[in-house]
Backbone:
């Protein structure tokens, strides 16, 4: 099909003006090729999560910011997660002992956390 199509294309006439090329990205004609604009076609524009500005700021305490970040992503080594990784430990809450020690329990549902 390509071969058939190419046989229908009119060859440039060297007696006319010299050839030129134009980079077109997203409908815009560019003077030169732009990798940034080309890659921008494939990037999905997403806003950074709103909570990140409250964690990662200039004067943040790195340790606290890192723990908050892990907490938000549910990556803290809670007992329930450690047990899920195969550790032979008790998965109940270290504070109340009544529920599984998960992020949500520690930070949301535990009675002291809920009061705070
Ligand atoms: Zn508890």
Residues:
């Amino acid at each position: 099909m390509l071969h058939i199509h190419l046989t229908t294309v009119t060859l440039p006439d060297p007696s006319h003006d010299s050839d030129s090329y134009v980079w077109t990205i997203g409908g815009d004609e560019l003077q030169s090729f732009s990798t940034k604009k080309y890659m921008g076609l494939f990037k999905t524009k997403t806003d950074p999560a709103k909570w990140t500005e409250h964690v990662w700021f200039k004067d943040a305490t790195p340790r606290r910011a890192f723990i908050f970040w892990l907490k938000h992503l549910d990556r803290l080594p809670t007992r329930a997660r450690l047990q899920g990784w195969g550790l032979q430990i008790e998965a109940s809450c270290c504070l109340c002992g009544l529920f599984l020690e998960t992020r949500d329990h520690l930070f949301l549902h535990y009675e002291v956390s809920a009061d705070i």
